[in-house]
Amino acid sequence: MFCFKNFRQRLNLRYISSLVQSKAYINGKWVKAENNEVFEIINPANGSVVGSVPNMSVNDASQAVQAAKKAFESSQWSMFTAKERSSLLKKWYCLIEENADEISSIMTAESGKPLNEARGEVAYGNAFIEWFGEEARRIYGEIIPSSTKDRELIVLKEPLGVAALITPWNFPMAMITRKAGAALAAGCTIVIKPAEDTPLTALALVKLAEQAGFPAGVINIVTTNKAPPIGDLFCKSPDVEGISFTGSTEVGKLLFRNSSDGIKRISLELGGNAPFIVFNSANLDKAVDAAVSCKFRNCGQTCISANRFFLQQEVHDGFIDLLKQRVESLKVGDGSKPGIQIGPLINSMQFNKVSAYVEDARLKNANIILGGKPLKNLGNLFYSPTIITDVPTNAKLYTEEVFGPVVSIMKFNTEEEVIHAANNSRRGLAGYFFSENIQQVFRVAKLLEVGMVGVNEALISAAEAPFGGVKESGIGREGCHHGIDEYVEIKYICMGNLRY
Ligand code: ADP
Q1: Could you tell me the pTM of the whole model?
Q2: Pairing state of beta strands 189-193 and 162-166?
């Protein structure tokens, strides 16, 4: 039987969705790069070309910054009432919801994540637009009781100005909306620099923002595969007041250093090295369910993926048996096909890294009990879901973030020992543990050196909850009402010599 859906999926996406753009968006216009350069977007599942977008230069990015600056100053975005900003965000939210299927297909085609997960990301990502559309109306100031009779101390929250948003490929939509929603709610104007692997989802979102009616220059997007000089522009330009970055720790540090001269506001969501601890009292079924969803979502390519599994002695073998059964049954393949649970890795760099980390563990005498090899029959970027036990503390799988479908397991005896091991990392984004012992629950939740803790739960992100890390995992928080703080300045007004 002729299946229209499969037929559509085989066609170049450009012809099936009006949301697939081949231009960037600056100052309310869809534009090419100044030198007409473009670069192609590749479907990681099969190597096909999904589309192409402008390969913009520093000059192009500079135009975007100027447009955002002009929109901030002259089209009075910051002077829109909170209700007006909120209404536009709500319109954008509704348009995204109406187009959720289209956006999901684009996302799957360029990122490889299974369609179900892409749909989940659209819902999750759009929740930030909804949330910040609501929060836009609650950016309250304060009146502080003065210690003298003739004064009133007033505190206002004012938007920063132009915010540059640099985002990664693992959540092509949500990493943008989590930043853009907050920045726009606060009254900032924005320049988005999406990841080079996944700009099409980002452009589709901006297309819908245009339809929602955001004034020209309020939202700009610059596509490029030459990120460093553009990052440098954002860091050095006096017209950019804030930078929000999600990505690797190395690039985050570079941006932090480079923006220090201009004392820029900077918000960083960087890599993690999440511990996943299963104590003897844990409910093993729940723990295994959580381990599978936390580790294998997006093929393990999330910064809050469990990276180091610590299993207490009594539950060690039982957990591994259950986990092995579950992981063996995972369906790997092209994410656009029904029933697929794990797609390819995003690109060859990522694929080589995962392979090298597994080899490193093998050489250091870790025990590969499942997988541990590429799945060449499916394509160049597929890696088999892998379980490795007895991972030594000097293995890359232990010290670094693998960002792949690999479960690395260590055994432990005491709570004290595992807390020390879990915290023995300069990264501190998320941490998870499973325990039915109420005393232990509170104790361990407080002792873990991370920004987010999942207790008997591994899917912890939500628009209304603060996302962010400690140590080298970042600065600032996204989502929640705290997410607005990254985009506002506090202004204190002292009203003196008042006569009552
Ligand atoms: P990943 O390893 O996840 O690709 P990166 O930190 O390299 O993480 O990329 C995250 C985002 O940062 C992407 O949008 C990428 O283009 C951008 N990026 C990479 N290098 C720089 C840089 N030097 N300055 C600014 N942005 C950069």
Answers
A1: 0.96
A2: parallel
